[in-house]
Specification:
It is a single chain. With 98 residues, this protein is of the alpha/beta class. Helix content is 33%, strand content 18%. The chain contains four helices and three strands; from the N terminus they run βαααβαβ. It has a three-stranded parallel sheet, with no helix packed on it. The longest helix has 10 residues. The chain is globular and about 35 Å long. The protein starts with a strand and ends with a strand.
Length: 98
């Protein structure tokens, strides 16, 4: 049986802050308007599930971002966000410049 995968490709989109990240994932991930836009809410959404029907209907969530802005270097917010992804069921893939 094949896992149903949700791939959110944000490459090419400059993400400078966590708010930019929430803006970018809100629509493709089906986040409700009342979504908390913080790391705890994101953790509940991708780990516990039950908040987004879009994410809940997939076995695996993969988010692709460019290695720039928020994801350039060792920024504390980016490290905290990346730490929420488990690398198996939920993946954050940071792509370097081509």
């Amino acid at each position: 049986m094949t896992d149903k995968k949700l791939v959110v490709d944000l490459r090419g989109r400059l993400i400078e802050t966590l708010n930019d990240f929430w803006d970018a994932v809100s629509e493709p991930c089906g986040l409700p308007e009342w979504f908390g836009r913080n790391l705890d809410a994101w953790s509940d959404t991708i780990d516990t599930r039950g908040i987004s029907e879009v994410i809940d209907s997939h076995d695996v969530l993969t988010v692709h971002v460019d290695q720039r802005g928020l994801f350039a270097g060792r920024r504390q917010e980016a490290d905290a966000l990346a730490g929420i992804f488990d690398g198996e069921r939920n993946r954050l893939i940071v792509r370097g410049a081509a």
